[in-house]
Amino acid sequence: MTKEQIICGDAVAGLLELQSECVDLIVTDPPYLVDYKDRTGRKVANDNSPDAVLPAFAEMYRVLKDDSLCISFVGWTALDKFTRTWVEAGFRIVGHIIWTKDYASSTGQTAYHHESAYVLAKGWPRRPETPFADVQPWVYSGNRWHPTEKSVENIGAVIRAFSKRDDTVLDPFLGSGTTAVAAALNGRSAIGIELERRYCDLAQRRVAGDKRYLATKDQSASKAA
Length: 225
Ligand SMILES: C[S@@+](CC[C@H](N)C(=O)[O-])C[C@H]1O[C@@H](n2cnc3c(N)ncnc32)[C@H](O)[C@@H]1O
Prior knowledge:
This protein has helices spanning 11-16, 50-53, 56-63, 79-89, 152-162, 178-185, 197-207, 216-219, and strands spanning 4-8, 23-28, 64-74, 92-100, 114-122, 135-137, 168-171, 189-194. It is globular and about 40 Å long. By secondary structure, the protein is an alpha/beta fold. It is built from eight helices and eight strands; from the N terminus they run βαβααβαβββαβαβαα. The chain is 28% helix and 24% strand. It has one domain (4-219): Vaccinia Virus protein VP39 (Rossmann fold), CATH 3.40.50. Bound molecules: S-adenosylmethionine. S-adenosylmethionine is lined by residues 10-11, 29-31, 44-46, 52-53, 146, 148-150, 173, 175-176, 178, 193-196, 199.
């Protein structure tokens, strides 16, 4: 039987509670280190504090089983800091996934029409028979519960591609609980860690299946792997 465990607190402290090599897959969406603020003024904790975010990757490496993968979302502006941290932790970069958006989430020298994640290997995971396409359609979450909420559809597709039923999926920057909900809906166990109490409580309610806290699309998600 699958189960969901949500730890409220700092990622490193929460990860230190876990045994080495106890998770099959990590899917995580850390603060992008851009001091983000949405149109309504919502911010992301530690989004301007590399020292409060990056050390978690060494502990993620420890708790991940050998020959397994970590999929980490990242923004291009702090890519140098993240890649250095990943490599120092022991990960090898083995893939890069892009989600294309039909709207621009921001603009600078270019209009930002994508999100991205890197596929990081601990050891030498077996290559899948049918590899996950590294360009994917973006499904907008609505950001109802969290300013940088990912959709259950996008995270669920990653979980199905890189894990099997009854595996344990970890997200130490859980936010509103999307990774744990997507894991549960796909027959995987989940461990999530989140700093902010309000998001821990929300994540608990979402994984408990409280329909008031599920996005509309979540409710139609199936349990199929
Ligand atoms: C980009 S958001 C994740 C959003 C999530 N994917 C969702 O769909 O709701 C990153 C989260 O990491 C949390 N966070 C920041 N620093 C943390 C830390 N040191 N330990 C644990 N969580 C932290 C923030 O509170 C925020 O909710």
